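ARCHIVE CARD
CATEGORY: sequence design from structure
SOURCE FIELD: tokenized fold
FIELD CONTENT:
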């Protein structure tokens, strides 16, 4: 059985209301003529009355069908909306799994970065201590000779904030260290990389 939607039923009800109005007008006219003694008007009024009763039954049938159609459509819409919400929740769950995976990666990288930055500071201190012991401490005005771990932290902070790194800071941390300690590098390829 084909399900009729509420819009089609509403259109049928509107057409039925027009037919019912016409039938009631016919009944009123014929009833008035019957009272006035017009021959055949009584049977015409009876026929109009029968048509009115039949149309009222059809109206009742359509009203019940419309109520059921509206309920069925509301349930279908609610089911569709529930399915869409469920899909969004499923998508959120998948994204949460990926988020946690990335968070674990960040935790691992953060642990490694903390060690690396601590090592940068320690090794820079070793270079400076050795040069101080040799009484050859270089000028601190050259970029990369002091605070290399601060350069690394600035780079990480800029990335974490999503801010642009200044053009002058586009060098890698290794390049900055090479510039600062170029005079100590023995290998020509290391010097050229700076």
């Amino acid at each position: 059985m084909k399900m009729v939607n509420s819009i089609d039923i509403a259109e049928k009800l509107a057409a039925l209301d027009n037919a019912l109005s016409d039938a009631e007008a016919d009944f009123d006219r014929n009833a008035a003529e019957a009272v006035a003694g017009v021959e055949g008007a009584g049977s015409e009024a009876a026929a109009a009355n029968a048509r009115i009763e039949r149309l009222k039954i059809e109206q009742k049938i359509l009203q019940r069908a419309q109520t059921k159609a509206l309920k069925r459509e509301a349930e279908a819409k609610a089911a569709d909306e529930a399915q869409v919400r469920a899909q969004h929740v499923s998508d959120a769950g998948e994204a949460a799994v990926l988020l946690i995976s990335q968070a674990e990666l960040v935790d691992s990288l953060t642990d490694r970065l903390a060690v690396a930055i601590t090592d940068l500071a320690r090794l820079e201190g070793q270079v400076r201590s050795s040069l101080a012991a040799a009484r050859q401490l270089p000028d601190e005005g050259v970029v990369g000779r002091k605070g290399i771990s601060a350069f690394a932290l600035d780079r990480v902070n800029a990335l974490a904030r999503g801010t642009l790194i200044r053009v002058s800071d586009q060098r890698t941390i290794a390049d900055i260290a090479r510039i600062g300690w170029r005079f100590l590098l023995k290998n020509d390829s290391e010097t050229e990389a700076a």
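CARD ANNOTATION: The two ends are 82 Å apart (CA to CA). The chain is about 80% helix and 0% strand.
SHELF: design records, drawer C
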